[in-house]
């Protein structure tokens, strides 16, 4: 008989991700850091990816916090815009932790806010490097390395489906990656792996606050049925659901976490 803290399948309901190994890209701060905390709180071993030396202190502080709270984590530096670094990041996880169960492709942004007429080739390539090409290479690596029953989750943006002036390259890159995810969702289903997209609306992170005016934020809040922007925990909770076994029949979906701003 299962004890009071066990479900009928023997899983401790307070630690539904115990024994799973997760990678979260771009996890040193913002939404990614909150996702790493959330998965670790449910028992997952978490690889906290960060891009460069400037984020190494934040990444190691997050790892220390997770370890202090009783889970396993490590910080791994890799630029998710650079294919060889992406390959190395993914390949070391099964080598070090025995397997890879959950991949959250969160690293993104670096948006160039310019009209299409003003966008240079370099601007376009920079946005595509991280938000489309890097994601494609990461999805390839995940497709090869995720084990049976794995979970692949991409953090898109409401801008992908609701672009506004100045966002073409970023919106186009995000919508392209949504298409990669919906394709791989069908290709991996026979291995019991699901792939889904979480599409946040405006979410309170340092980066978002530095890139938007108070007037723009007030406009979004005013137009949002729930009357607020998202907090990072709102996004992390949805990712946590997708990462677990109770989301088993969800595949190839785009879940909009935007307070009802349709
Ligand atoms: P953030 O606070 O800037 O966090 C992004 C993280 O990714 C940072 O740790 C960043 O490191 C890292 N990163 C950047 N380039 C990278 C690279 N080449 N390789 C590895 N890591 C890299 O951004 P956020 O607001 O949390 O956004 C997280 C995700 O949500 C992004 O994909 C973004 O497009 C999406 N999103 C955000 C919002 C929002 O309103 N916040 C809304 C919709 C979608 P650095 O700090 O060194 O750059």
From TrEMBL:
SUPFAM superfamilies from the UniProt entry: NAD(P)-binding Rossmann-fold domains (SSF51735)
Residues of the Ketoreductase domain: 20-201
Alphabetical list of Pfam families matching this protein: adh_short_C2
Keywords: Oxidoreductase
InterPro entries, A to Z: KR_dom (IPR057326), NAD(P)-bd_dom_sf (IPR036291), Sc_DH/Rdtase_CS (IPR020904), SDR_fam (IPR002347)
Family of the protein in this entry: Belongs to the short-chain dehydrogenases/reductases (SDR) family.
Name of the featured protein: 3-oxoacyl-[acyl-carrier protein] reductase
Organism: Paraburkholderia unamae
């Amino acid at each position: 008989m299962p004890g009071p803290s066990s479900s009928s399948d023997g899983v401790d309901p307070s630690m539904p991700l115990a024994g799973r190994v997760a990678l979260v890209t771009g996890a040193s701060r913002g939404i990614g850091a909150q996702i790493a905390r959330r998965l670790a709180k449910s028992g997952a071993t978490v690889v906290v990816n960060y891009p460069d030396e400037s984020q190494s202190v934040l990444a190691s502080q997050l790892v220390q916090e997770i370890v202090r709270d009783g889970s396993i984590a490590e910080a791994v530096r890799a630029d998710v815009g650079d294919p060889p670094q992406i390959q190395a990041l993914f390949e070391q996880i099964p080598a070090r932790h025995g397997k890879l169960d959950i991949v959250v492709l969160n690293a993104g942004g670096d948006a160039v806010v310019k009209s299409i007429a003003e966008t240079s080739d370099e601007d376009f390539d920079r946005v595509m490097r991280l938000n489309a090409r890097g994601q494609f290479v990461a999805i390839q690596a995940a497709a090869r390395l995720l084990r049976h029953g794995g979970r692949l989750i991409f953090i898109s943006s409401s801008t992908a489906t609701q672009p506004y002036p100045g966002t073409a390259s970023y919106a186009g890159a995000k919508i392209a990656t949504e298409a990669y995810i919906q394709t791989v969702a069908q290709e991996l289903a026979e291995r019991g792996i699901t792939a889904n997209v979480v599409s946040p609306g405006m979410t309170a992170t340092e980066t978002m606050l530095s890139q938007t005016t108070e007037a723009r934020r007030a406009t979004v809040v005013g137009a949002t049925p729930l009357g607020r922007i998202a907090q990072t925990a709102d996004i992390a909770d949805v990712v946590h659901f997708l990462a677990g076994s109770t989301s088993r029949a969800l595949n190839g979906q785009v879940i909009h976490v935007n307070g009802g701003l349709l």
